[in-house]
């Protein structure tokens, strides 16, 4: 018994040694900055001194019209940005994965690569390229639409407040649609051939097979993709900043929480940076993401039936 206990202790130390570097790095670059941000949000600088104000910064951000109008505008824009990805990106990713998983499709590897390539491109390249494409002065979009007789439908989509955010959302969908496609494609490949052969014996083929057999089996993967989309979109910043600048124009129509945080914390043009209010915005972003992830983990994931093969 003594020897068994000693072996268990050795194994525990063995695990701790290998986990320690990852835990230290994660603590240094994630946990400590998070608590530092939460601490900053509880203070305010008065006469070059930091004074503890509790939750007063949150009250100002949510209730003072000087701050709340910008915050609620950014929050709504973030929500709309997320809805675009959920309604367009994820269903298209599932569709592409279902088509590419068909053994009858030729050149499927080429199609997968072509769809996934935009995902590895830099945000700066994507933003600048699409600004050029959609430019009404020197872009190719008006000429391409003119070639198919749709020139009358062209608008300066990035320059109009009613179209700009939706346009950027669709550009983001184009860039990142490869991620849900590959995750769903991998999930479809894990379905045993015996299950599909049994379905074919019962006369379930084609789209009926996908809806009745494959889709229920990949629901956990779809759930993971949905929560990753939620977290990614409420942390979005790069694409908006590279295409529309720090002011997220036109007229703050594309302002999301990420750009609002950057402008508040670091300052922009004539706006003086305020680390305390910036930390307050960052803290609210953290709580929004935390609530969304918790709802998924405890309210949705537990209801998704997992199949073991």
Give short descriptive properties of this protein.
309 residues, mainly alpha, MetI-like fold, two-stranded antiparallel sheet, two-stranded antiparallel ribbon, 14 helices, 71% helix, 4% strand
Instruction: Please estimate the helix content.
Output: over 70%
By CATH, the superfamily of the largest domain comes out as MetI-like
Gross geometry: globular
| CATH topology-level name of the largest domain | MetI-like fold
Q: Let me know the number of strands.
A: 4
Question: Which CATH class of the largest domain is shown?
Answer: Mainly Alpha
Class computed from helices, strands and strand pairing = mainly alpha
Q: Report the β-strand fraction as a percent range.
A: under 5%
- Radius of gyration equals 24 Å
Word description of this protein:
This protein is mainly α and 309 residues long. The protein folds into two domains: 2-40; 70-303, MetI-like fold (Orthogonal Bundle), CATH 1.10.3720.10. The protein is built from 14 helices and four strands. The strands form two sheets. A two-stranded antiparallel sheet has the order 1-2. Strands 3-4 form a two-stranded antiparallel sheet. The longest helix has 39 residues, at 2-40. The chain starts with a helix and ends in a 9-residue tail after the last helix. The model has no long low-confidence stretch (mean pLDDT 89).
Briefly, what is this?
This protein is mostly helical.
Describe how the helices and strands are arranged:
Layout: H1 2-40, E1 43-46, E2 49-52, H2 56-63, H3 65-100, H4 108-116, H5 123-134, H6 141-147, H7 161-176, H8 178-189, H9 193-201, H10 206-217, H11 219-234, H12 238-244, H13 257-266, E3 267-268, E4 271-272, H14 275-300
Antiparallel strand pairs: 1-2, 3-4
Helix pairs in contact: 1-14, 2-3, 3-7, 3-8, 3-11, 3-13, 5-12, 11-14, 13-14
């Amino acid at each position: 018994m003594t020897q068994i206990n000693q072996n268990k202790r050795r194994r525990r130390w063995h695990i701790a040694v290998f986990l320690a570097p990852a835990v230290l790095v994660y603590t240094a670059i994630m946990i400590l900055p998070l608590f530092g941000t939460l601490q900053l949000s509880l203070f305010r600088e008065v006469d070059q001194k930091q004074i503890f104000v509790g939750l007063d910064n949150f009250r100002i951000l949510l209730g003072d019209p000087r701050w709340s109008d910008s915050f609620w505008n950014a929050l709504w824009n973030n929500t709309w940005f997320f809805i675009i990805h959920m309604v367009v990106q994820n269903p298209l990713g599932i569709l592409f994965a279902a088509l590419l998983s068909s053994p009858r499709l030729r050149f499927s590897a080429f199609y997968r690569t072509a769809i996934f390539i935009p995902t590895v491109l830099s945000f700066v390249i994507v933003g600048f390229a699409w600004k050029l494409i959609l430019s009404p002065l020197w872009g190719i979009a008006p000429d391409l639409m003119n070639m198919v007789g749709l020139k009358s439908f062209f608008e300066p989509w990035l320059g109009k407040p009613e179209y700009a955010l939706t346009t950027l959302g669709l550009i983001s969908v184009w860039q990142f649609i490869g991620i849900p496609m590959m995750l769903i494609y991998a999930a479809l490949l894990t379905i045993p051939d015996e299950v599909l052969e049994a379905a074919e014996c019962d006369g379930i083929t084609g789209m009926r097979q996908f809806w009745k057999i494959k889709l229920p089996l990949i629901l956990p993967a779809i759930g993971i993709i949905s929560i990753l989309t939620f977290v990614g979109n409420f942390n979005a910043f790069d694409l908006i900043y590279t295409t529309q600048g720090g002011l997220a124009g036109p007229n703050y129509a594309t302002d999301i929480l990420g750009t609002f945080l950057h402008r508040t914390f670091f300052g922009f043009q004539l706006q003086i940076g305020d680390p305390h209010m910036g930390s307050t915005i960052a803290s609210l972003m953290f709580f929004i993401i935390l609530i969304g992830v918790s709802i998924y983990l405890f309210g949705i994931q537990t209801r998704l039936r997992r199949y073991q093969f």
